[in-house]
Design brief:
The chain is an alpha+beta fold. It is 33% helix and 23% strand.
């Protein structure tokens, strides 16, 4: 049995919370868990994260019954939902000058037939917790993570790097 919880914190810098999440009904055939952490402008991040969650959720729910239920089809569905959410966020950012440059991370965890499928963009993370063990399942799409992967800096140096919040991938312009 899966227990799902969501908790969000405004953080130390922002005036408004730019996080959004979705947890599906645990009794449904497909379990869907999503998280988005917005960025940009006064309310741009809040709009981007909410829009990304809404769009990807609707895309998956509207198209799941039409696809083959094999691994590749489900992975393709998740990827397409992320691409579609990116397009919707981008188009919305062009409609309003105050939303220009908005963006968001997006994490999707879809569970079907006891198998987990993940979609990931940005530096939010997906972990698996079993008993006392916690394992990170995603790699950050950040500049600093790239430096660590390339061996330019250590994991310890990454924690205090001045550009640790600079993303290489996000839903945005």
């Amino acid at each position: 049995m899966i227990k799902a919880y969501a908790k969000s914190d405004i953080g130390k810098v922002r005036e408004i919370n730019q996080d959004s999440f979705y947890i599906s009904d645990s009794l449904s055939e497909v379990q869907l868990y999503m998280l988005a952490d917005g960025m940009g402008g006064y309310n741009g991040g809040e709009v981007a994260s909410r829009l990304a969650i809404q769009t990807a959720k609707n895309y998956i729910e509207n198209n799941f019954k039409e696809i083959e239920k094999d691994r590749d089809s489900i992975i393709q569905l998740i990827g397409s939902s992320i691409e579609y959410a990116n397009m919707v966020v981008y188009e919305k950012s062009k409609e309003n000058k105050e939303l220009e440059g908005m963006g968001t991370t997006l994490e999707i965890c879809l569970i079907y037939n006891n198998k987990v499928f993940i979609g990931h963009v940005g530096d939010s993370r997906i972990y698996r917790i079993r008993k006392e063990f916690m394992r990170k399942l995603t790699q950050d799409h950040s500049y600093v993570q790239k430096l660590v992967k390339d061996g330019t800096i250590t994991q310890e140096e990454a924690q205090h790097h001045p550009q640790k919040n600079m993303l290489m991938k996000a839903l945005r312009l």
